[in-house]
Amino acid sequence: MEWEFAAKGVVEARVGYDLDAFRRDLAEEVLMNLEGVDAQQQAQTFNLIYDLCYALATNRELDEFLGAYAFDPPKCEFLREIRPMMDANIEMLGAILQRMIMDGVEAGMPVEQAVGAAAAQHGRVVAAGV
């Protein structure tokens, strides 16, 4: 995806771009590229791409992430192929997650608590769907 602002602006709270907006925009991008594919496959592909972005935005290694899909070589190949195209998305998601943590710290939470709060918020957003 492309934005009219940089990830740094999100981290510095100069831009109000949150996890819900990121997931919505990513879903739109995925759906545009999956025209003619059934809704279930669209949702599965979105979730897979989002999980890739999240894993890499939270400093997991690609091979570690792909380990969960070792039983599905075509899926691993797909993820390896799209990985370079996800750089901007990974950077932006990382900025959003960092901002979520910083919001907690700025509200007076210790860092560990802010990380936990951000993780819980992330879980709620993901569970709610797009």
Describe this structure in words.
With 130 residues, the chain is mostly helical. The protein is built from 7 helices and no strands. Helix 3 (39-57) packs across helix 6 (87-106) and helix 6 crosses helix 7. The longest helix is centred in the C-terminal third of the chain and has 20 residues, at 87-106. The protein is globular and about 45 Å long. The two termini are 16 Å apart. The relative contact order is 0.14.
Q: What structural keywords apply?
A:
mainly alpha; 130 residues; globular; 7 helices
Averaged pLDDT: 94
- Helix percent band: over 70%
Indicate the radius of gyration in whole angstroms.
15 Å
Beta-strand residue fraction? under 5%
Low-confidence stretches: none
What is the makeup of the main sheet?
Answer: none
Q: Work out the number of β strands.
A: 0
The end-to-end distance, rounded to whole angstroms, is 16 Å
Order of helices and strands: HHHHHHH
The helix/strand class is: mainly alpha
* Shape verdict: globular
Count, helices: 7
Summarize the structure.
This protein has helices spanning 7-11, 19-33, 39-57, 62-66, 73-82, 87-106, 111-128.
Q: Which helices and strands occur, and which strands form pairs?
A:
Elements: H1 7-11, H2 19-33, H3 39-57, H4 62-66, H5 73-82, H6 87-106, H7 111-128
Helix pairs in contact: 2-3, 3-6, 6-7
